[in-house]
Design brief:
This protein is 44% helix and 15% strand. It has 252 residues and is α/β, with parallel strands linked by helices. Strands 1-2-3-4-5-6-7-8 form an 8-stranded parallel barrel, surrounded by 6 helices. Bound molecules: phosphoenolpyruvate (PEP).
Length: 252
C-alpha cells in the first residue's frame, strides 16, 4: 500500500515585493487549516525568512526556494547555497523548472549535481520534468521525460531518491491556460512511476509523490487530483491569489 504525501505547492516565480509576499502568506494561513495536504510555498529567496517566521507554528505549511547552487559555498556571485536556504527555513527546493532549463540553460547534468547536493544537506527537491509542444507532437514525450529523470535523478541511491518529489510539468501547459487533460496527466504519471519502479523497486515507486503542473486552477484541480497517480500540484499563476490557491488545496 502506498504511503505518499499529497502536496500542493505554489511557485511564486519572480512575483511580489516583500510586503506583498508577507500579506499573501498571512492570507493563506488565515484561509487554510490542517488536513491531508502538505502546502508548500515556493517563494523568492528574500521572502524565505519572513515567511518562515509567519508559518513557524503551522506544520502543514512548508517553504521552498526556487533554485539552489550545487556547490557548498565559494566564489559564485549571485548564487545561493543549500546551507543558506536551510538557515532561513526552506525545507524544499524546486529544481529544474522549465524556466530555469530554458532561460538559464540548466542541463540534466547540472541538475543531477544540484539534486545530489540539496539532498546531502537535507533539502527536499521538487524536481521538475516535462516536454515542449514540439516533443509532444512528435510523440516522443515519454522517452524525453524518462531521459530527464534518468540523467537528473537516477544516479541517486535509493535512500536519497526517497527524498525527491517529482513535478511533471508539460511546458506547453505552463502559464498558457492550457492544461493537460486528467487522462494525459495520469498516463504520464503512471509511466513515471513505472520507470521509478524499474530502477528503485515497487515500494519506492508507490511512495514517490508525483505532482502535476501546468495551468492548474480551481476549476480543473479536482479532476486532476482524482487521478490515481496524481498526488498534488505545482501551481504557478493561481498560487499568487490566496482564494484560488486555497480552492486548489481544498480540491483534494
Ligand atoms: C509553474 O510555474 O510551475 C506552473 C505550473 O505555472 P502555471 O500554473 O501558471 O501554469
Amino acid at each position: 500500500m502506498e504511503n505518499r504525501k499529497q502536496i500542493v505547492a505554489g511557485n511564486w516565480k519572480m512575483h511580489k515585493t516583500y510586503d506583498e509576499g508577507m500579506a499573501l502568506v498571512n492570507e493563506i494561513i488565515s484561509k487554510t487549516h490542517e488536513g491531508n495536504v502538505q502546502v508548500v510555498l515556493g517563494v523568492p529567496f528574500i521572502h524565505l525568512k519572513g515567511a518562515a517566521d509567519l508559518t513557524a507554528n503551522i506544520p502543514y505549511i512548508s517553504l521552498a526556494s526556487q533554485n539552489c547552487h550545487e556547490k557548498e559555498s565559494g566564489a559564485y556571485t549571485g548564487e545561493v547555497s543549500a546551507d543558506m536556504l536551510l538557515s532561513v527555513g526552506a525545507e524544499y527546493v524546486i529544481l529544474g523548472h522549465s524556466e530555469r532549463r530554458e532561460h538559464f540553460k540548466e542541463s540534466n547534468e547540472v541538475l543531477s549535481k544540484k539534486a545530489e547536493h540539496a539532498i546531502s544537506k537535507g533539502l527536499l527537491p521538487i524536481f521538475c520534468c516535462g516536454e515542449s509542444l514540439r516533443i509532444r507532437k512528435a510523440s516522443i514525450h515519454v522517452d524525453f521525460v524518462a531521459n530527464q529523470l534518468i540523467e537528473g535523478l537516477f544516479h541517486l541511491n535509493k535512500e536519497a531518491f526517497a527524498k525527491v518529489v517529482i513535478a511533471y510539468e508539460p511546458v506547453w501547459a505552463i502559464g498558457t491556460g492550457e492544461t493537460a487533460t486528467p487522462e494525459q496527466a495520469q498516463t504520464m504519471h503512471q509511466d513515471i512511476r513505472k520507470l521509478i519502479e524499474k530502477k528503485y523497486g515497487g515500494q519506492t515507486a508507490q511512495n514517490t509523490t508525483i505532482l502535476y503542473g501546468g495551468s492548474v486552477k480551481p476549476d480543473n484541480a479536482r479532476d486532476l487530483f482524482s487521478q490515481t497517480d496524481v498526488d498534488g500540484a505545482l501551481v504557478g499563476g493561481a498560487s499568487l491569489n490566496a482564494d484560488d490557491f486555497v480552492a486548489i488545496i481544498n480540491s483534494f
